[in-house]
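quick q for whoever's on today - can somebody do inverse folding on this one?? i tried earlier but teh output was garbage lol. tokens:
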């Protein structure tokens, strides 16, 4: 059976902790700024990676990356110091995305819900901007795997291990994340597994729901199976 989309745009964002004191429901719980945008375009018919996008982002509030962040992500200070701020980086991404999209039916794809549901939402609040409505719905790879194999995977490494795919690069590197996610996607497409929209959220500039300081961080409701978070 054919997939309902012509293209899957695999995307992830690599966040870094910031050190600011604004937006009270955002700061002490989601102190994150995006420092890298990584994206691959995969054709559901060709089952091949057809294009790619990678852009580092210079954080506005977090002046310097710490050693732990640089070690686990592979992102160096000089990479972000010479990069544009998020607004400019996002404009570059959207220009690439619209050209890649063309007249095709396209869906964004992430390994889990956090890149869009959390990281992008947090960054857009900080930057006081609203992303395209195309980000209100997308495909979560974990859910596709769960529906296909009747087992909810813990992470990308689990999926690759079960599908006998060699993991490439660093676990916390954004571009390596989408590269490995593309390998899983291609494998599942070859098995004629359907890729359909399975996650929805509306990203806006309104305040996050108020929560008591002694309670756990608010996580926007999703449709993951119980215990998936």
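ok took a stab at it. sequence:
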């Amino acid at each position: 059976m054919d997939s309902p989309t012509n293209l899957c745009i695999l995307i992830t964002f690599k966040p870094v902790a910031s050190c600011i004191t604004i937006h009270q429901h955002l700061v002490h719980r989601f102190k994150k700024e995006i420092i890298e945008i990584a994206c691959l375009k995969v054709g559901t018919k060709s089952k091949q990676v057809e294009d790619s996008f990678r852009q580092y982002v210079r954080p506005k509030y977090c002046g310097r990356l710490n050693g732990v962040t640089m070690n686990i992500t592979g992102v160096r200070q000089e990479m972000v110091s010479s990069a544009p701020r998020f607004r400019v980086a996002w404009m570059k991404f959207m220009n690439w995305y619209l050209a890649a999209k063309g007249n095709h039916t396209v869906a964004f794809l992430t390994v889990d819900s956090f890149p869009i549901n959390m990281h992008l939402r947090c960054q857009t609040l900080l930057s006081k901007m609203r992303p395209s409505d195309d980000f209100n719905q997308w495909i979560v790879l974990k859910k596709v795997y769960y529906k296909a194999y009747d087992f909810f995977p813990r992470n990308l490494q689990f999926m690759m291990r079960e599908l006998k795919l060699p993991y490439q690069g660093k676990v916390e590197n954004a571009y390596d994340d989408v590269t490995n996610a593309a390998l899983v996607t291609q494998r599942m497409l070859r098995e004629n597994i359907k890729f359909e929209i399975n996650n929805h959220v509306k990203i806006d500039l309104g305040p996050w729901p108020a929560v008591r300081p002694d309670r756990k961080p608010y996580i926007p409701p999703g449709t993951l199976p119980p215990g998936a978070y």
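fwiw The longest strand covers residues 32-43. also Helices lie at 24-27, 67-73, 77-81, 86-101, 114-127, 141-149, 156-162, 174-190. so keep that in mind when u check it
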